[in-house]
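Researcher: Structure for this, please.
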Amino acid sequence: MSGCKYEVSPGDGAFYGPKIEYTLKDAIGRQWQCGTIQVDFSMPERLDAEYVALDSSRQRPVMLHRAIVGSLERFIGILIEQHAGALPTWLAPVQVAILTITESQADYAQDVAKMLKNQGFRVLLDVANEKITYKIRSHAMRKLPFLLVIGDSEKASGSVAVRARGNVDLGVMTTAEFVQKLQVEIDHKK
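Model: Predicted structure, token format:
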């Protein structure tokens, strides 16, 4: 036995055979059936499916249906709702947004973005000619794990000003220091 809690639900199985299902609770306590494995005695008969057994007799197989996470859309919806849209760094579609203060930092920002992408991180580069406060607010509302702000001083020193989700100012660090921090978060599934 795995030690998992379970309950028997007579009558809840599919009409064609028994099933095991995994039910998840969402952030507000609703239950959703997700993963399932079901035994199907009906479909092989409807398909007139057969196999040749070791004794050369023709036998009717039994089918197994499985859905690892159930409806992928339902699972993703539960995941997003559970995290209120603020997916953990390792799972976030965009892990880092790089924002420039002016157009004069665009070349350095592109280099930083390329370096991060080459290391396998998911990066968004924003070199638009907008006020930095607008850019920060806009990307913070997307609940991205990290924002890197690059101005003339960061460009000159080869560094980045780091903001973590929730408007937490982590200060200025070298790109190597930031990569190390980002990798630790991903490795520890934060």
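Researcher: Any notable elements?
Model: Strands lie at 19-25, 31-40, 51-52, 58-59, 63-67, 96-100, 123-126, 146-150, 159-164, 168-174. The mean pLDDT is 90.
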